Amino acid sequence: MTLEEIRGQENTMENTDRVQSAGAALEELLVAAKKHDYLTVGVYESAKVMNVDPDSVAFCVLATDEEYECDIALQIHFTLIQAFCFDNDINVVRVNDIERLADLVGANETGEPKDAHCILVTSPSANPWKDPSLDKLSLFCEESRSVYDWVPAITLPER
User: Fold this and answer.
1) CA 47, CA 30: separation in Å to the nearest integer?
2) pTM of the model as a whole
3) What whole-number distance in Å separates Cα of residue 64 and Cα of residue 52?
4) What is the C-alpha to C-alpha distance for residues 102 and 122, in angstroms, rounded to an integer?
5) With contact defined as beta carbons under 8 Å apart, do 125 and 54 qualify?
6) pLDDT digits 0-9 by tens, 118-128
7) DSSP output for 80-106
């Protein structure tokens, strides 16, 4: 085994730990934001918030799974949301477990699961909300961008 192969294995293990840590931080962030009523759930609802008050958006989660990967309209919305987030310095991550995200953010008033394809964590401009999980995720996104991974994928921890 060469030195490069050993370093490659170390980097892979390190990256897996980093992604798992980010997944736990994302779960903590979503639970805390839900308690404070700082979540906006749904593609259209998120687009409205971004249009009206982009400064209130602290973090963006885009979610899809195999069922929706071929949904062209959803992919166009994702592209526009990502572009908006990049222009406004908002960190964005992707999650491939939409059912787990829907469980975390809960159901709407009618008891139906919410459209969890896009979730925004907001923070009022007058009284910014600080959360250690948000700081961890911001660092994770910054590290990912340093290796040209502009929208990193996060895996949520198993239940």
Assistant:
1) 19
2) 0.83
3) 25
4) 18
5) no
6) 999 998 766 77
7) HHHHHHHHTT-EEEEES-HHHHHHHH-
